[in-house]
Design goal:
This protein has about 350 residues and is α/β, with parallel strands linked by helices. The chain is globular.
Length: about 350
């Protein structure tokens, strides 16, 4: 039995090596102690991080990205949505200034128009501008013949999902459908993916009685839930499949999903620790190449959140999501490219230790 467990562990290791190249990292800048953009892009290249999410068109970062061959998801900040939605000329100017002026030496892949806008709650006033802004940016991209190379979408969070259990019954909240359905229709028309920020950490933190830590960290040793013949051994798969099911249940058309953020804090609140963050992130990197039970074998394009601990974010928890420290030292001992630089025995023993805590 021990030999079989070790063999299974080695199989997981090999999956991680094969798929790690598909994992990018979000470059947030809300810190007053972060390195200059030129050094940050150098850090991406030195660690074989081949894709990057940028939340706004920071000119220093875009200049540093020239010739880097790093694929870029460029954000339109929520503060720009109204301007770009109400005036197509503003959208064309935005695209000219922040995309065309750098293309093709900067390898833009996506434009994320808005982040986590919700038609119910604090950002509800912005919801009316998201789809028109997307459409105006898309038309500006299309006018240059780049709409097949640069896909335009928006990033949502999982609070838009009303039913998530079981995953096959996933559906969006009734009070967001009027907002979301036209966006999904656009995505089908433009053959663009939906960007989704998915955090098992917050689900675990909000309900530790019903969600075990091993289930949230990918370290459960057995299936925890069966749904229509599909076995769920981790919370991430359940969350992703509930989103896939919610998209499918609209019957608007097929939409791919890009995991535009996922991470685990190393400090600052319940369940936030260095060991938990390292375990979640390393297991996520290994897991996403294989897809989910509902879309098995289909790799999930993934962006880890975030590059650095950002000391100007609040609350305290938000300061501790970095995979690097501001001094450019790795916080965790995993790689983002083809090599593996943590000790197999240590990782294997760590998994067994977690099993004993279940």
């Amino acid at each position: 039995m021990a030999a079989l467990m070790l063999l299974l562990g080695l199989m997981v290791v090999n999956i991680g090596i094969t798929g790690a190249e598909s994992v990018g990292v979000c470059y947030g800048m809300m810190g007053n102690n972060l390195p200059p953009a030129s050094e940050v892009i150098g850090l991406y290249k030195a660690n074989n991080i081949q894709s990057l999410r940028l939340y706004d068109p920071n000119q220093a970062a875009l200049e540093a990205l020239r010739g880097s061959n790093i694929e870029v998801m460029l954000g339109v900040p929520n503060s720009d949505l109204q301007s770009l939605a109400t005036n197509p000329g503003n959208a064309h100017s935005w695209v000219q200034r922040n995309v065309l002026n750098f293309w093709p030496s900067v390898k833009f892949k996506y434009i994320a128009v808005g982040n986590e806008v919700n038609p119910v709650g604090g950002s509800s006033w912005l919801a009316q501008y998201v789809l028109p802004a997307i459409q105006n940016v898309y038309q500006a991209i299309r006018a240059q013949g780049l709409h097949d190379k640069i896909k335009v979408s928006t990033a949502v969070d999982t609070t838009l999902i009303g039913v998530s259990y079981p995953p096959s019954k996933g559906s969006f909240r009734n009070d967001v459908r009027q907002y979301l359905d036209p966006i999904i229709g656009y995505l089908v028309y433009a053959n663009a993916p939906l960007f989704a920020n998915v955090y098992p950490y917050f689900s675990y933190k909000g309900n530790p009685r019903d969600i075990s830590l091993p289930y949230a960290l990918f370290t459960s040793q057995s299936v925890q839930m069966w749904d229509n013949g599909r076995g769920y051994q981790n919370l991430f798969d359940a969350m992703m499949d509930s989103l896939y099911a919610a998209l499918d249940s609209t019957r608007i058309g097929h939409v791919e999903v890009v995991l535009s953020e996922s991470g685990w804090p190393s400090d600052g609140d319940f369940g936030a620790s260095y060991d938990n963050a390292r375990t979640y992130l390393s297991n996520l990197i290994r897991h996403v190449p294989g897809g989910t039970p509902m879309r098995s074998g289909k790799a999930i394009e993934t962006y880890l959140f975030a590059m650095f601990d950002e000391n100007q974010k609040n609350p305290e928890l938000e300061k501790h999501f970095g995979v690097f420290y501001p001094n450019k030292q790795k916080k965790y001992n995993f790689n983002f490219g083809g090599e593996r630089d943590w000790n197999i025995a240590d990782e294997y023993n760590g998994t067994l230790a977690l099993k004993s805590d279940m």
